User: What shape does this take?
Amino acid sequence: MIEKLDELFKKFKKELDTVASNADALNLKAQYLGKKGPISNILRSLKDATASERKVVGASANELKVSIQDLINDKINSIEMDLMNKKLESQRIDISDRQSIRANSMLYSGGFHPINLVQNEIEDIFLSMGFEVLDGPHIEDEYHNFEALNIPADHPARDMQDTFWFEPPDPEASNRHLLRCHTSTIQVRGMKDRKPPFRFIAPGKVFRCERTDASHESAFHQLEGMLVGENISVANLIYFMKTLLSEIFKKEVQVRLRPGFFPFVEPGFELDIQCLICKGKGCSVCKKVGWVELLPCGMVHPNVLKAGGIDTSKYNGFAFGLGLDRLVMMRYGIDDIRLIHSGDLRFISQFKSY
Ligand code: FA5
Assistant: This one.
């Protein structure tokens, strides 16, 4: 019996040498250690043997079982190790070779968000035309968001944008705080610190309590512009708007100018761009009208200039408030504004990296 067990072990080792996969190893284990396998058969045949024979052969058979189990485990470990080494070798990256890093997608280089890309371009365009770039606070007071812009407390225009208000510490307090609902607040701040003539732009985030859809967000970006000097005319305003659009789109785009009402400009205009998503046919972005409201503008109202400390007998000016997200949508053919703010890397990584 003992010899039979020895032969069995030799046969097992030979077969184990030919095993090349985990599945084969497990099959071999079942074949030798299973209930109907040769070792179980030998143990069963011991029922007619003497007690001492049973003891010796039983102990050897159990030792053999343990050895087979150990060798099978070693085999499985070595197969897995080989697989892992092969995988590591195939994914080997030369960290001194940028191409190899990119091809293996192991390292993502940073990039600009499309809003920043276009904002940077617009800043360059206006810097080259002598404009400054200003910034302003997101949390504003009523004075800068409304009053100084010729929108007093009871003015219906306060309802034009649904404003996020902060609860006043004192309910009787005047000049409550809010999240700015447009970048026109920076007109007021910019005028206060400067003497005419001056020109500046002011990009930034604005907030409105609005239901979102393909072209509306509740937190979005605008880019304000203001130019104050002597004898400024609508023709000057149109010139700067045209320059901006032709530099950004670098192709002919259809625009239309129509009268627009904003208490802080007179006359006021809405400058719309023909929807580049549907080429003017009508879609969810342009609400089926073929045109997208992009760049409201106008000649600064004298009340606003006065609030900014400007001598209106000598100076006048224009202002505009570009919808930056919508410009980005038109520029890149993005058909839903919510993608811009999704934070989804699959979307953002389509834009230019450093
Ligand atoms: C204003 O906010 C004025 N302050 C703009 C202005 C400045 C007019 C200076 C005259 C002189 P309006 O609410 O239309 O205007 O917004 C300006 C632009 O912001 C819109 O044309 C549009 O392109 C964009 N916009 C408005 N609401 C949203 C929104 N919810 N989501 C995304 N973009 C929006």
